[in-house]
Amino acid sequence: MVTGSQPTADSACRIPTAASGREFFSAIVGYELTGFPAGVHVGLPARSLTLIVPFGGATVVSGDALDGAGRPLHEPTPFAGLIGGIHDLPVHIHHDGHQTGVQVDLTPAGARALLGVRAADLAGRVISLADVLGPSARRLSDRLAEAADCRSRVAIVERHLIRLLGTGSGSLQRATQRDPATWHAWRLLSGSDGGLPVSEVAQRVGWSRRQLTARFTAEFGHPPKVAARVMRFEQAHRLLRLQPTPRLADVALRCGYADQAHLNREWRRLAGCTPTQWLANEVFPNVQDEDGTEQSASVA
HTH araC/xylS-type domain: which residues (predicted)? Predict the structure, then answer.
């Protein structure tokens, strides 16, 4: 238990993503959370990859995800900075009640453009940020520690990412070397929050379901059926963060679940708990950006 001042998220913030980066990262959130009970935060599945640049301490992670060497992270493992791929199981973040850093939600296109890899290469993995950014990962963390406030830290990370897009490494060129039909399939699923049947996605892109599954999995690391489950779950998670919290039956209906029992089963599979349990145990707050959009202030 952290003692002293009351829990605070005064330094949690988000700034609008620059137009030049919107295809590659959907959100950049800075956070400095203090005075909360020590414990384990559940990082929930989502359609984005997660890049975390902490400062003032490591991010400690465990779960069924694999590390850079392909080993399961069954024991809490510290990362000076990390990238988590798209996953369909929870990741556990161990904390002492104090978390500081900047989180970036990368799109699959961002993985190609900024890291030079497919989303499939990182699916179900949590790897060190230094493995992909090299020494600049440490320098970036040091710059965050020296910054005056949360918004300055977010701006530092965003400028760094924009510079990566403009480097001569060829990563941006690799991002454009994509199979149009595969990415159209992703946009169809994502645009419907996983609600469009996989058979209809296959029909719209002109492939058999088997072709779609093979090519989609090769690019994104999960078959379209699993990706759709994650997207539907993410929509439910987003709705449950609203205030006041909506009724679970309404969330189930809005997200395309058969009923509340179906919603609960999917949450147990993807989050390891029911929505009610998650709401009761999640202590980190949400923050709002200037236009009032809700955004989680916790990592993952």
Answer: 198-281
